[in-house]
Write a structure and sequence with these properties.
The structure is a homodimer of 412-residue chains. Chain A is an alpha/beta fold. Chain A is 36% helix and 21% strand. In chain A, the strands form 3 sheets. In chain A, strands 1, 2, 3, 4, 5, 6, 13, 14 and 15 form a 9-stranded mixed beta sheet that branches. In chain A, strand 3, helix 4 and strand 4 form a beta-alpha-beta unit.
Chain lengths: 412, 412
């Protein structure tokens, strides 16, 4: 979007206004990237924005026991009790450190814009429509990705979640309490889940599948199995100038071995693996480190291959990787997926492209919990994501909103 | 020392009191290590302590244009003008991150204790005796080791020093101003240098040379050439789950190559090399880094070998190392060294051991500036330094104080 003022179609004005309002929130001037971390002041600003947009559309906003926000039309509880639960759209507003503008917010903004479009078209939904804003999807602060949807569905234990700490040692419970949220209520929320008959998340693509397919919008097929592991590499702090090489116990050497093993093992096993986060102690130029902590992110089409990568990295590092999160492969509801691909057919009548992805999403967590779930992707010209350079063209964002509105009509 | 309350000889009570007073200052409860960084509140507390000890001994404390403190007996300016400049002892009170209790403070405390001992013995010094407390010896905050002595002697340019930044982006000038020191005065201080006829620094050994020699105290022969280089490894931030290995530009791989090259090149060239400090951006688990900054510390007996290590590491990393500091080899005044070794002869009459070191010291900077300079080392049972485990036995500390007092008598 990058500040373009081109018209956005019938509800385009609202999309552009929403996008412009979010643009400065949590943006780091030094990098141009976003730092929107869970339960911070920036997060509170984003939640207020979400609540304001919902109220402006006469949607009732309710929080769930996991810290997520839901804005519903009509009476979702009555509809659920009548066996006609609602259709929920949405995504998240938080970011990785120095992330892009689209990962998350595009799904939330597009959901509001699609609702606007449907209303302008006079569409009267036979079931409630909800828009969700998930808490802490990226896990940038407390280390667990999709924390909001995992808590909602009970995959993440409430006690474990409350005890998670950020880099400053603040627990999630403390951070939630400081933000005025009640960590004591954390846990699986069956009442909130009952309202969601179907969940549909629109997201910027994080690869170039749609570029190759020549389409602005596609449908998700599956999410690769993926996880995060921590490598605790221990050594002995010593003077960098006076300690003989033979007398050193330098954990930086184990780190180097682990980084190189991650790349070669990923190549060997047809997966991807990344060491993107490190902590060095004491991190002094003239001190051999006493400890290096490294985090390994590994994913791939096949679970066994991902596990093999992690084992190889542990072997090279000489330590057992500690699993911090693991998400098995997720295949989205095939019938739902095919209906959407047909509803979003291209001008020549062929169905919309159907793509796998290596990225985890709240939609994947809901799908794994048995909720009929689907995802739409919007074309990303470079494929770059989790970076200030992440981008989608305005025309493609507009096509995404239109596709989301069509999908709602098709599913309801 | 570790809280032992054993008697410390004639001036032992004062030594133990001073040691106990310094013990809690800047100590991190989580690691037991010291975080005494230049121009912080902790640094101010250490400076106040130094000034109090000096005043209790009727020494006049004067700062120099480099931020160092000097406590003198008598009138050092008059003595210098008369061609009889003083004998200065001392060391520093700052630390590396999570450093030990001895590196620096042992020299300062021993200097006060040696002066006490000389006075108790009725020694009347024919020339002024000074005790120096150097600013920012470790360079932990602003990246330049021995910043205080380098500024004093003009080796470090004042404008460059003022512009140095810490991890938070605070400049040295700002930090000094916040501490009430005048960064505008920074620069070579000929007036302060003229007072120092001879400089003598006592320091805990940072290796096991004295363990092997079976002696509590030794004399320094030389300081290896040593320096610090920065490696700016650039890549491209991308999503860890969706970016194919072939499409990645991951600077963590260059880091791994640099770390392994540092070790193998050091082995090959008979030097030591350490990568002890890193900065990763954005440092997120699920983001390929956009940049990794690594600092290389390299030292060795021969300058050419150290340069060869740095070149090999740059080649492996694919980038030119940026030199942040370089100190050529320093040989301490041979006549002074031999006088001290003889004055500190062992019970069997053999001279005290004479040892080279890989550690830089303010004494080395003063020696390079042409001041007759010597160092005494106190035995370190494990050789460990720059670590909370750094240690010297009380008996050896006591021997160090006695040796320092004997050295003063021998030199005056």
């Amino acid at each position: 979007m990058r500040g373009q003022s081109r018209d956005f179609g019938p509800s385009g004005g609202a999309f552009e206004r929403m996008w412009a309002e979010l643009a400065p929130v949590g943006r780091a001037a030094s990098t141009g990237g976003y730092r929107r971390f869970a339960w911070t002041r920036t997060d509170a600003e984003l939640r207020e924005w979400f609540t304001g947009e919902a109220r402006a559309r006469s949607l009732e906003v309710v929080g769930d026991r996991a810290g997520n926000l839901w804005a519903w039309t009509g009476d979702p509880d009555a509809a659920a009790a009548a066996g006609r639960p609602g259709l929920a759209l949405g995504s998240h507003l938080d970011s990785v450190p120095d992330g892009g503008a689209f990962d998350g917010p595009l799904g939330v903004v597009s959901a509001f814009a699609a609702l606007d479009l449907l209303r302008e078209q006079g569409f009267r939904p036979p079931r409630p429509i909800g828009i969700g804003c998930f808490a802490d999807e990226e896990g940038a602060r407390f280390g667990i990705a999709c924390a909001g949807s995992k808590l909602l569905t009970g995959v993440l234990d409430a006690d474990r979640a409350r005890a998670l700490t950020d880099a400053d040692g603040t627990t999630l419970a403390e951070a939630m309490a400081a933000a005025g949220a009640g960590p004591g209520d954390l846990g699986r929320d069956d009442e909130a889940l009952r309202r969601i008959g179907t969940f549909l998340e629109l997201h910027v693509e994080q690869g170039r599948g749609l570029v190759h397919a020549g389409a602005a919008v596609g449908v998700a097929e599956s999410i690769w199995p993926h996880g995060r592991w921590r490598l605790d590499l221990r050594g002995r702090a010593d003077h960098a100038g006076t300690t003989r090489l033979a007398d050193r116990d330098d954990p930086m050497l184990a780190l180097a071995a682990a980084v190189l093993a991650a790349r070669s093992a990923a190549e060997r096993h047809g997966a991807v693996a990344t060491v993107g986060k490190l902590r060095v102690e004491p991190n002094g130029v003239n001190a051999i480190p006493s400890a290096v902590t490294a985090w390994l992110d590994a994913r791939g089409p096949a679970e066994d291959d991902v596990r093999a990568v992690v084992a190889d990295v542990g072997g090279a590092a000489g330590t057992g990787p500690v699993e911090e999160s693991w998400t098995p492969p997720t295949t989205f509801d095939p019938a739902l997926r095919d209906r959407l691909a047909a509803a979003l057919a291209r001008p020549d009548g062929t169905p919309a492209p159907v793509l796998p992805t290596g990225a985890g999403h709240d939609a994947g967590i809901l799908a794994a919990a048995g909720i009929p779930t689907a995802m739409l992707f919007v074309r990303n010209p470079t494929g770059v994501s989790h970076s200030p350079a992440e981008h989608a063209e305005p025309d493609d964002c507009r096509a995404g909103v239109a596709a989301l509105a069509r999908a709602v009509q098709a599913l309801l």
